[in-house]
Design brief:
EC number: 6.1.1.4
GO molecular function: aminoacyl-tRNA deacylase activity; ATP binding; leucine-tRNA ligase activity
Shape: globular
Radius of gyration: 37 Å
Structural class: alpha+beta
Catalytic activity: tRNA(Leu) + L-leucine + ATP = L-leucyl-tRNA(Leu) + AMP + diphosphate
Organism: Rhododendron griersonianum
Strand content: 15-25%
Oligomer: single chain
Family: Belongs to the class-I aminoacyl-tRNA synthetase family.
Helix content: 25-40%
Number of strands: 43
Length: 937
């Protein structure tokens, strides 16, 4: 007996299979075998297990039954069941050693998360859902898919939380990972959990340490005394990329400039040109590539020497070398500026100015590089008391100290040309320094000291008989070349390529990070790399991991670990007590996913050659000049030493947008508490904003207004989700109320992946109703108790042409549901809403998961219309439309038009002079003019 001819009550009485293995099916009938399933489940119906007294059981059961009736479909049963099935059957495991490399590969990767204690909010699954849809699609299209997940678990946040709570960061990290993993599994993501990694596992950071040793061998890791960004609150040094607007990128703590400290540094500048040039071949957002280009900041120019003068105006044996990208403006240099940390400062400052200079240096040391170079900030500086000679014209020009010049960029000194640089112009205006115009726009112009001209043009006021340099009337580029030739010929400088990119400050004075595998001999202080055979160097357990406050790392407290002996010489030695930054472990994790269990190598060469590069990499744009740049640097080093075969790690990068909280509506109120329209209010201290509930709001054009008073326009704005605003939406709550499939589908229907958009609970309710309609279409309407039949309404009838065409457009309600039409629809739905699709697939009589079923292919034949809508014009004016067969003749079209209710009234009693017919496009009927005399009578 076929399933579809049973009564609903008969079908419902059959228990659902427990899915502890493969679903039980009768292969001969291609439908679920109820007898075997019931036997495996102990003969009990699949449902809620209730404990307690009979009365409490009855009340609880009543609540459950009521809840069942309200649900659009039983996602609360379906989703846990299929998640359990996927896990028990390792459905999404990617074969390792036994993989068929003749098949195409698809490596899709999420920027792996930092597992915080707060868990996920609904913004996090946006990118994860997109990558999961791609992974599921590619599996069904016959690709070997690598879709892994892991944890970026070392770093400051976990350590800060541990310090605040007195809990070891290892414990909080493991607890947070468990929560994140549970949440991700509840959303049905098809990760290969067999490949799960954490940067805190010794088996993993053994290879992070190994990469560091390779950098050290090649001179790409070194120690130096350098000025650093010091964060007192975090008790550690930060790289330039980790300081945003003068505060730490993690935590938002103030950062100051500290006197030189001995630090580990990675020579990323050695790869500057390759990091820049190879961007052109990447399928990345242009904005991200431009951010990296700007951060690397390659520029061509010249280094020019300015001789320092003594009190008599004679040259001293001291020269200040400046770097300039505009040598053509050298005649306009009316002063020099040195960074407060410039090495020659003490030799130049006059005794009279020394106190002011020292005070200014102290103030500058409290600012970050970003604060100092902010264009909008007010320029500050102090005169050094010294002068230097401009080599182009021989003039003595003053030497100033100002914090808008950085010691870490160029030479730490600039020639200031206030007529042609906005910062120099502001500085000169404030301190009354001469401004000399030496370039005018091409096509003519005159000097205007009120506004600098920073573009290229024609040189003026740029010749000197004393120096023999004359660039008057030359275009800027040609003039720049002549100046470079002149400084090289006269020994006053040379051509120079420069970069904004600084070497990566790598050491951290914190506990929760990878130990750096280096020893220092006690007798000589010589640094000795740890033998590779001794890796991993395990992070020791510490009870007190708080920062020391002196710059000495917390690991210095682990005395028995710090004091050791060099294995090669046997001499007493001390271990390095700085740790690596959080970025170290995330620089190469994508490689470890290819071969996560390998204890002999970072990654097997054959596996790397097959899987590299990552095909699609999805994550936030905030990582453009941190993780993405660092990863590219490490990858290129690994490429040079033969560990990897591709010169770039990520073929395509996609930045998902931010999901904002729900739109909030605010109204202005005056001091009397009266509403004031947002388009008229002149904000003052007497005005304040008050939140208005959505039911009191209505749309008016492009604005929102009060329902009760449409003259009051409101402020409608969605904010980034944060605890402080109280607008965080927990995905656990959404899954509980609507199901994981609804959340997944809604996040994809909110708008383009790359755009930011506001959360709207009404939107997810609409998607949930859609899934409910799909369920009722295939399974049928719910029974009186809110449950559904076991099986589907599908038949074995052959689908009609109309149904096949409908499948290619939009499923609608049919009297009969041919399996051949419904099954492709279920497969189309599966990447988006996999739990429902799996359930429907099973109910349609399939024994295996649909995860590897061939994805349906579009057939253009079903998209082709057999009829077309033909506009009909009378004397050139459209009077209606008619439905005609494709290829319809002019005669047939006219006959149909003559019988059409709207068109025929214009033809009655009229003589047709001419018919203009374009097949499938238009019918235009030209009529004879009516008798004018008859019309007059």
């Amino acid at each position: 007996m076929n399933l579809q001819v049973q009564t609903r009550s008969q079908i419902h009485a059959t228990p659902h299979p427990p899915f502890r293995g493969r679903p039980f099916l009768c292969s001969a009938q291609r439908r679920p075998c109820r007898r075997l399933a019931a036997a495996a489940n102990g003969g009990a119906k699949f449902g809620l297990r209730v404990c307690g007294s009979s009365s409490s059981r009855g009340e609880e059961l009543s609540k459950v039954e009521e809840q069942k009736k309200r649900r659009a479909y039983p996602f609360h049963e379906i989703e846990p069941r299929w998640q359990r099935y996927w896990e028990e059957n390792r459905t999404f495991r990617t074969p390792d050693d036994d993989i068929d490399t003749s098949k195409p590969k698809f490596y899709v990767l999420d920027m792996f998360p930092y597992p915080s204690g707060a868990g996920l909010h609904v913004g996090h699954p946006l990118g994860y859902t997109a990558t999961d849809i791609l992974a599921r699609l590619k599996r069904m299209q016959g690709f070997n898919v690598l879709h892994p997940m892991g944890w970026d678990a070392f770093g400051l946040p976990a350590e800060q939380y541990a310090i605040e709570t007195g809990t070891h960061p290892k414990l909080t990290t493991l607890r947070n990972i468990d929560r994140f993993r549970s949440q991700l599994k509840s959303l049905g993501f098809s990760y290969d959990w067999d490949r799960e990694i954490s940067t805190t596992e010794p088996e993993y950071y053994k290879w992070t340490q190994w990469i560091f040793l390779q950098l050290l061998k090649r001179g790409l890791a070194y120690q130096a005394e350098v000025p650093v960004n010091w964060c007192p609150a975090l008790g550690t040094v930060l790289a330039n990329e980790e300081v945003v607007d003068g505060v730490s990128e993690r935590g938002g703590h103030p950062v100051i400039r500290k006197q030189p400290m001995r630090q580990w540094i990675l020579r990323i500048t050695a790869y500057a040109d390759r990091l820049l040039d190879d961007l052109d071949d990447l399928d990345w957002p242009e904005s991200i590539k431009e951010m990296q280009r700007n951060w690397i900041g390659r520029s061509e120019g010249a280094e020019v020497d300015f001789r320092v003068l003594d009190t008599d105006g004679q040259n001293r044996d001291i020269k200040i070398t400046v770097y300039t990208t505009r040598p053509d403006t050298i005649f306009g240099a009316t002063y020099l500026v040195l960074a407060p940390e410039h090495c020659l400062l003490s030799s130049i400052v006059s005794e009279r100015q020394s106190k002011d200079v020292e005070e200014y240096k102290e103030l500058a040391s409290r600012k970050s590089d970003l604060e100092r170079t902010e264009l909008q900030k007010e320029k500050t500086g102090v005169f050094s008391g010294g002068y230097a000679r401009n080599p182009a014209n021989g003039e003595a020009i003053p030497i100033w100290i100002a914090d808008y010049v950085l010691g870490s960029y160029g030479t730490g000194a600039i020639m200031a040309v206030p007529a042609h640089d906005i910062r120099d112009h502001e500085f000169a205006g404030k301190f009354d320094i001469p401004i000399r115009w030496v370039v005018v726009p091409d096509g003519g112009g005159s000097s205007n000291s009120e506004r600098p001209f920073s573009g290229e043009g024609i040189c003026v006021n740029s010749s000197s008989p004393r120096s023999g340099l004359d660039i008057n009337s030359f275009p800027s580029k040609e003039a720049a070349c002549k100046v470079i030739e002149w400084v090289e010929k006269t020994g006053n400088g040379n051509k120079k390529v420069n970069y904004k990119l600084r070497d990566w400050l790598f050491a951290r004075q914190r506990y929760w990070g990878e130990p750096i595998p280096v020893l220092f001999l006690k007798d000589t202080g010589e640094g000795v790399p740890l033998p590779e055979s001794e890796l991993p160097l395990i992070l020791p357990e510490l009870d007190d991991f708080t920062p020391t406050g002196t710059g000495e790392p917390p690991l210095s407290k682990a005395v028995s670990w710090v004091e050791t002996r060099d294995a090669l010489s046997g001499k007493p030695a001390l271990r390095e007590t700085n740790t690596m930054p959080q970025w170290a472990g995330s620089c190469w994790y994508y490689l470890r996913f290819m071969d996560p269990k390998n204890s002999e190598a970072l990654v097997d060469k054959m596996k790397e050659m097959y899987w590299s590069p990552v095909d699609v990499y999805v994550g936030g744009a905030e990582h453009a000049v941190l993780h993405l740049l660092y990863s590219r640097f490490w990858h290129k080093v690994l490429y040079d030493i033969g560990v990897v075969s591709a010169k770039e790690p990520f073929k395509c990068v996609i930045n998902q947008g931010i999901i904002l909280g729900e739109v909030q509506y605010m109204v202005w109120k005056d001091s009397d508490g009266s509403f004031v329209s947002a388009d008229s209010v002149d904000v003052s201290r007497e005005h304040h904003q008050e939140r208005i509930s959505e039911e009191n709001v209505m749309k008016s054009g492009d604005s929102f207004v009060l329902k009760d008073n449409p003259d009051i326009r409101l402020i409608a704005r969605a904010h980034k989700m944060s605890k402080s605003r109280g607008n965080v939406v927990n995905p656990d709550d959404v899954v509980s109320e609507y199901g994981a499939d609804s959340l997944r589908l809604y996040e994809m229907f909110m708008g383009p992946l790359r755009d930011s958009k506001a959360w709207n609970t009404g939107g997810i309710e609409g998607v949930h109703r859609f899934l409910g309609r799909v369920w009722r279409l295939i399974v049928g309407s719910p029974l009186p108790d809110g449950t559904f039949i076991y099986g589907t309404m599908a038949t074995d009838d052959k689908p009609s042409m109309e149904q096949l065409c409908c499948l290619h457009k939009c499923i609608s309600k049919w009297d009969k549901l041919p399996r051949a039409a419904i099954e492709p629809f279920v497969l189309l739905l599966s990447p988006y809403s996999p739990h429902m699709a799996e359930e429907l697939w099973f109910r349609l009589g399939h024994s295996n998961s649909l995860a590897y079923e061939p994805f349906p292919k579009a057939d253009p034949a079903y998209l082709k219309e057999s009829t077309v809508v033909l506009p009909v014009q009378i004397n050139g004016k459209t009077r209606g439309t008619i439905q005609v067969e494709e290829g319809c003749t002019e005669e047939d079209a006219f006959k149909l038009a003559s019988t059409d209710e709207k068109v025929s009234k214009y033809l009655d009693g009229r003589i047709v002079r001419k018919k203009i017919f374009v097949s499938g496009k238009i019918l235009n009927v030209i009529l004879e003019p009516q008798n004018v005399k008859a019309a007059i009578r």
